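Posting this for the archive.
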Amino acid sequence: MRLVYALCAFISVLSWFLLNLPVSFIWLIPVFFLGFLLVFHAVFWIYLLVITVPVNMNKPQEKYSKFYYFHLNVGYRYLCRMARCRIHVSGLEKVPVDRRFLLVSNHRSRFDNMFQAYILGSNHIAYISKPENFKIPLARKLMKKSGYLAIDRTNPKNAVGTIVKAIDYIQSGEISVGIFPEGTRSKDGKMGEMHAGSFKIATKAQCPIVVVTLRGTENIHKNAPWIPTDVYMDILDVIEPGDRRTTEICDQCSEMMNSFLLENDRYAS
């Protein structure tokens, strides 16, 4: 966004000079700046709207689109920048570069997967999300074409189908998969109980599990856009499922994440 602001400022000053306005009209420069900035935002959203027009939500998605995934990440970057977030990352070197993986994280905010996809942009990650998120205008089409999967926990048959599709993603080497095993966002910042069933993706696909914690995203809605928010993404470890049970893997991940958050989070008691 700094580049956009700088460009708008340059065009505003240039416009003032080209119009040959007297010094008494220098106050028009900030007006021009705001005008050009509004035009940029409008063009950005109109562009995303136009490229998603051909997407048919009723047609089964057989293969993900790199084109739409790129634009989904551009949208994530845009929102994170507009929210004035300062991002702090640790452990990025631990992420596998030659294998697809299952990303496991705590869940505090609607921004969680945005930051993870933004930070891990070179790793195509499709998230398993609740069906309600596929009703969000514009975003739902980008999500669908990027391989995101809806999971209906009230319908076991459909939920199993989603898990099977996620396993196929990883085994085929197409996409890594991201999940929030708590199943819902935390209301107080403390981790809820994690569901072991979601770890079947890793045990069946025999893929690495990237264990991640997020801190600070729960403050964005209170601060943005006036107050900057510090967001911390820590990649704690990468573990192999082996032949262990999902409950054992789930307990290991939960203990690892809880211990880290208790030591580093303001919610520690």
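The mean pLDDT is 89. The CA atoms of residues 19 and 208 lie 60 Å apart.
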